[in-house]
Amino acid sequence: MIDPTPNEQVAMAAGGNAAGNYLESLGKSDLARLTQEEWRRLIEIVVTGYCDTLRELAARDRCRLDAVSERTPF
Questions:
Q1: Percent of the chain that is helix, strand, coil (3-state, to 5)
Q2: Rounded mean pLDDT of the chain?
Q3: Are 15 and 45 in contact (CB under 8 A)?
């Protein structure tokens, strides 16, 4: 990703943290030792963590923008 936005940076960190928690729960840190199912699950966790966080941040941004626009007379 080139020039990620602040929200994208936060979302990447969230996806990475979720992946780290998953690997820790498996007791594995060497990705080459993951089974095919563990690898699939790891990717799912990263993508889900990224997307969920990005959606949450976008919703917060939307609420802030809506609040500002309600106070703006034009």
A1: 80, 0, 20
A2: 92
A3: yes
Compute CA distances 48 → 4, 16, 33, 61, whole Å.
18, 10, 22, 20
Residue 73 DSSP code: -
Expressed in angstroms, the distance from the first to the final Cα of the chain is: 36
With tokens 């563990």, the residue in question is 38
Q: Return the structure tokens found at 55.
A: 């959606």
Place of tokens 């994208």: 8
Which of 9, 33, 32, 29 has its CA nearest to residue 20?
Answer: 29
Token pair of 74 as six digits: 């034009």
Q: What's the pLDDT tens digit per position in 28-41?
A: 999 999 999 999 99
Instruction: Specify whether the CB–CB gap between 42 and 25 falls below 8 A.
Output: no
Instruction: Tell which residue, 27, 13, 20, has the closest CA to residue 57.
Output: 13
